[in-house]
Design goal:
With 259 residues, the protein is an alpha+beta fold. The protein contains 5 helices and 4 strands. It has 2 domains: 102 residues; 89 residues, hypothetical protein PF0899 fold (2-Layer Sandwich).
Length: 259
């Protein structure tokens, strides 16, 4: 069998040309596409690894934040429990102090009411006693007692302080109020005493005043000079009231027991 070297050479040349053409126009673009895809895949893998790394870091951060939150929550709960206990203790102490203060105020109020009740009772008792005394003296008063009170009034006029007597000299009128109608002799004697001390031209006018019980009252220039049982009783009642008020005010208050 004869070999056609020309044909073989031509085929070889065609093969080489085909290989060169495939290498130039097919293999290289395919390799370029493959490289590009490999690069894209590598980039995606790298990006996925980056994302995974970020996800792991975010997960770790979230875990740390959760742990910190759990710690803060426990601390806040503990703080709330402690503050609640402290507030409860404060409220209990405030309530105890308010209760003590209220007890003290009630004790003081009761003591004040007791003192006031004693004062009112004392004043009422004094009023009743003086009322009965006034009534009894009014029933017992007679002409003899009234005449004696008239004499006492005349003696008191003579015993007036010099300054007061000088201030009343020159008086134009004197009103004499008495329980009953004095006798002419008693009137004359009293008028003489009045003119002797206040002036010869003074006008003396008499008036009946049953409320005086026994005695008389002279009104001179707006000044009252009273010598009567009613005046004595009134003065005595005022002195007794002042004495009772002083004693009640000095009475020790009941001690306040605070537990």
């Amino acid at each position: 069998m004869l070999i056609d070297w020309f044909t073989v050479g031509a085929q070889a040349i065609n093969f080489l040309i085909l290989v060169w053409l495939l290498r130039r126009y097919l293999y290289k673009p395919v390799l370029a596409v493959i490289d590009a895809r490999e690069r894209k895949v590598a980039a995606r893998i790298a990006d996925a690894e980056t994302q995974e790394t970020k996800a792991r870091a975010a997960g770790e951060e979230l875990r740390k934040r959760n742990a910190a939150f759990d710690g803060d929550r426990a601390a806040l709960m503990q703080k709330s429990v402690e503050e609640g206990a402290a507030e409860r203790q404060r409220l209990i102490e405030a309530a105890r102090q308010d209760s003590q203060l209220l007890r003290v105020k009630m004790t003081q109020s009761l003591a004040a009411e007791r003192v006031e009740l004693g004062r009112q009772l004392s004043l009422r008792t004094q009023a009743e006693v003086f009322s009965l005394t006034r009534k009894a003296l009014s029933e017992l008063a007679g002409v003899g007692l009234e005449e004696r009170m008239m004499e006492v009034a005349i003696d008191r006029l003579g015993a007036l302080p010099a300054q007061q007597r000088l201030a009343l000299i020159g008086t134009r009128a004197v009103l004499v109020r008495s329980t009953g109608d004095p006798s002419p002799a008693a009137r004359t004697k009293l008028e003489a005493a009045i003119r002797e001390h206040f002036g010869a031209n003074v006008v003396v006018r008499f008036e009946i005043a049953p409320e005086l019980v026994c005695g008389l009252e002279l009104s001179v220039e707006g000044v009252k000079l009273a010598w009567s049982v009613a005046d004595y009783l009134s003065t005595l009642a005022q002195d007794a009231a002042v004495l009772a008020a002083t004693e009640l005010a000095a009475a020790p208050e009941a001690p306040a027991h605070v537990h």
